[in-house]
Amino acid sequence: MTTFLTALVVVVGIVGVLNLLLLFGVVRRLKEHDQAIARIPYGGMQNLPADSMRSPGSAVDDFTAVSTDDVAVTKESMTAETLVGFFSASCAPCIESAPKFAAHAAGVPGGKDRVLALVVADGGDDPSELVGVLGGRARVVVEGYDGPIAAAFGVTAFPTYCVVADGTITATALEFTTLPVPAPA
Asked: What is the pLDDT along the chain (185 residues), one digit of tens a residue?
């Protein structure tokens, strides 16, 4: 009986050690996958920008909104070329790209009057982080997912960017650095 119990303990110990080695292997592979996914910009959304908003040449619908610094924003207020960024408070790539967008906006001639940042937030979403990051360099408007500005541009994904002039979208992109910098007015 003692021999049987000893053999059973040895077998259980070997199975336990093999299980532990297998667990370490799985954890190592998960870390490798996590690092590989982190290196892919926008993950699986890389091919979505083609339909993330209306295409260049499309007209923007009429809208009226008020920015966080109490300035009225309308389609007519964007007669000169204006850089527009669309962000969602619940979107990790939006939070990641907002500081870069704000830094890029610092180089736009005309400053805040030529840069509009829309922050979409609903329910429990807190837009304050994005508003704080973008507010110094862009006119920021906060609205819900069914808000007038996102609907006027036909936005379906976040983040997405465009340049608009005289009520017409002139360029769109998923990466704002690929958009033309608005010319001085």
From this structure: 888 889 999 999 999 999 999 999 999 999 998 877 766 555 444 444 557 899 999 999 999 999 999 999 999 998 889 999 999 999 889 999 999 999 999 989 988 889 999 999 988 889 999 999 999 999 999 999 889 999 999 998 899 999 999 999 999 988 888 888 777 76
53 within 8 A of 153, measured Cβ to Cβ: yes
Of residues 76, 77, 55, the one with CA closest to residue 153: 55
Q: What is the pTM of this model?
A: 0.72
Q: How many domains does the chain have?
A: 2
Q: How far apart are CA 147 and CA 88, in angstroms?
A: 12
Answer yes or no: is 184 within a domain: no
Domain containing 32: what range?
A: 1-39
